[in-house]
Amino acid sequence: MNARNLESGEGKQHAAGDNGGNANKLNAALKPRHLTMMSIAGVIGGSLFVGSGSIVHSAGPAAVLAYLAGGILVVFIMRMLGEMATASPDTGSFSTYADRAIGRWAGFTIGWLYWGYWAMLMAWEAHVAGIILHEWFPLVSVNAFTLGVTLVLVLLNLFNVRNYGEAEFWFALIKVVAIVCFIVVGTLALLKLWPWGETQGMSNLVAHGGFMPNGAKAVVVALLGVMFAFLGVEIVTIAASETPNPAEQISRATRSVVWRVCLFYIGSIFLIVALVPWNDPLLGQPGYGAYRRTLEALGVPGAQFVMNFVVLTSVCSCLVSAHYTASRMLFSLAKRRDAPALLGRTRGRTGIPVYSVIASCAIAVILALINFVDALRPKDVLDTLMNITGMVAMLVYLVIACSQLRMRRKLREEGKEPLVRMWLFPWLTWAVIVFIVAALTTMVFVEEYQTVVLSTGAAALAVVLIGQLRHGPGRGGLGVSRT
């Protein structure tokens, strides 16, 4: 299949995971409003509400620089991904593009790493949900709630994909309303127009040891946590293959990512570091959350309950999305013969990749059950998994940049112009690659992350070697079907 055929009916069937017939094809049941809200929800993850407090506490007011750097990187990455996805919509997204642009081994490697990322993330999100529900209903243990939330939410992905779209739409809407309200309240407080609590204007930016009290090293370390928070915005390019007009929807979502990142992340984090001293001991308390602490400092009544509700909604949203994304990536791997063929089968007219859903669900349930085994120290397991997923995010972005670098040249050779184009090509693409490599190299020399970087690198190398043994180092071209 050549690049031009990807825009024909044949190409759309391949993008949906079809091999030429109607069997084993994903159902294009997602509506434009679903995809629009999913693209917004991908930016607002549970880690924004839960993990931002520890990042601010460790990096000081300069944490906003880590979020700014991560935000700019994500904007560039989404632009590159949007360019490739509008030219060739595919449920495998960047894994498929790595397959075509770099080689079979690259698509194999990044696909399995990404699937592992979301499978592990489900355990963390469910654990956070369990903690919140236990606070509301202390007679039931955290572990029981964690398992219950996992089982209930993964069931959504066993039905028509429209159910997932509806659930994510309403979850996302709650998150958007919450973050917008926070920004309004924070802005009023910054302008000293908020009638309750004590506000210091912007003096907290430099009042407690300066803007960068713990040095540049702390900002670099914070970047890994920031990248973990950002990963998820690319879900829209995976889900788009289950919409009637994927290229147009991807183009729209990609073009709007700039204002979403600026508003939801950089804007809100700036308000936090301006309104709350970075050395506030509650910011460093695990799971406390910078947003909750800011609302409490401003005297907002019921701040704890409000933020717990928002966080619960957010982690439920992320859990559903994580399971959806993991199952679709596994489905794509199976269609490219990089996973057992059974995982590439769909169920009847619903078009649900039921075996991929069950396989991803099984991992989530197993990780949830680990919580009941005290000897395994489940909290340590979850913390280790989350540090590793931050590294996976960086590797995914590196592969996207390298793939776009090669695919643009293929598009030019074939005289094609994608709906979305990366700015200042190839200079910005190279700049992104250099930045990611530099950040990963720097983290090798940061004591707190040496073990994580090296262990993640070793795991990635092992998957690369498996991919090399399976497929060899050969490089594919744009649009070449290998199914």
UniProtKB/TrEMBL annotation:
Residues of the Amino acid permease/ SLC12A domain: 34-450
GO terms under cellular component: membrane
UniProt-annotated stretches for the region Disordered: 1-20
Compartments reported by the entry: Membrane
Pfam families: AA_permease
Source domain of life: Bacteria
Topology with respect to the bilayer: Multi-pass membrane protein
Keywords: Membrane, Transmembrane, Transmembrane helix, Transport
Gene Ontology BP term (one): transmembrane transport
TM spans (from-to): 35-56, 62-81, 102-124, 136-158, 170-195, 215-236, 257-278, 305-331, 352-373, 385-403, 424-446, 452-469
Gene3D superfamilies, A to Z: Amino acid/polyamine transporter I
UniProt-recorded name of the protein: GABA permease
Species the sequence originates in: Achromobacter anxifer
Gene: gabP_1
